[in-house]
DNA sequence: AACATCTTTAACGTTAACGTCAAAGTTAAG
DNA sequence: CTTAACTTTGACGTTAACGTTAAAGATGTT
């Protein structure tokens, strides 16, 4: 690791071929963290070169940004984030089960099942928003009181 | 631990004398957690009885509720919370200095100083709210797509 | 006084989310 | 072809935030 960005291989700006180091420096995460996220299933297993080196795509980077936001801004655990970001993988799996399932009733039941999960997360998110709005209101109230005081002080 | 609330000692409803078990059940934290918070300096060392038992006050409970909010709603680490609560106390200190100050110009300057702290916290809260709203929208989008699919399945 | 409950401190265990190090293979560059 | 830089997979180490157990003392009840 000596050059932070473009040291290796390809001169081509092909959109879906970043080395682990490039992804690391662009996301602000470490290489270890990227491998760890793959290990625990947060990131779909990256493609490999013939030499077995990982190659990441733009979508991977997008996903990593999402993960960062969920983790740092919202304080979710990686486990919770995996549930929240169940988009790609879950959608694939469910769609597979869909194709193999001929009974429409069963399909609808499967949909409802994932909906329950999503609604649980929605509730949690709403709770957090409510708490944050409360906190925000109380902080603004303080600022307002200070403004009042300031005005009184200046009228003297 | 057999009775959750009033098993021990005092019949008197004195406002600032709760056992560790009472505080635990009222805050939803564990006794271990209360001792731990004291250990790491999040909570001021509780008063003791002659028998060396901890006794908590109303203010302690208030502070614990604050800590819980910071931790669960905002996902702050205990270390960050200690800093945040310190700035709260710092504000108190500044307020004290404020009362002793007679010069109006100085008073206004001091007000502005605490406002900076408050606005920093407000910014953080706003960031978190924005992130949560984004997440909420994406979850609702998924639900909508599922509803679409459900409709298509039923029309067949 | 005996007893069941509560409390104390001390110390070791646990889980998540990585950090760090080692041994070995890969790649671009000289 | 050699070499420096990059990568791989283990595997063990670390920190935060507690959980759990143990040994001993305290308290109110019988």
TrEMBL record, chains A, B:
Pfam families per record: MerR_1 (PF13411)
Record has Transferase as a keyword: no
Membrane-spanning segments: none
The keyword DNA-binding is assigned to this record: yes
Single annotated GO MF: DNA binding
Annotated keywords: DNA-binding
InterPro entries in alphabetical order: DNA-bd_dom_put_sf (IPR009061), MerR-type_HTH_dom (IPR000551), MerR_fam (IPR047057)
Domain of life: Bacteria
Domain HTH merR-type: 17-87
Protein name per Swiss-Prot or TrEMBL: HTH-type transcriptional regulator YfmP
Organism (species): Dictyobacter arantiisoli
Name of encoding gene: yfmP
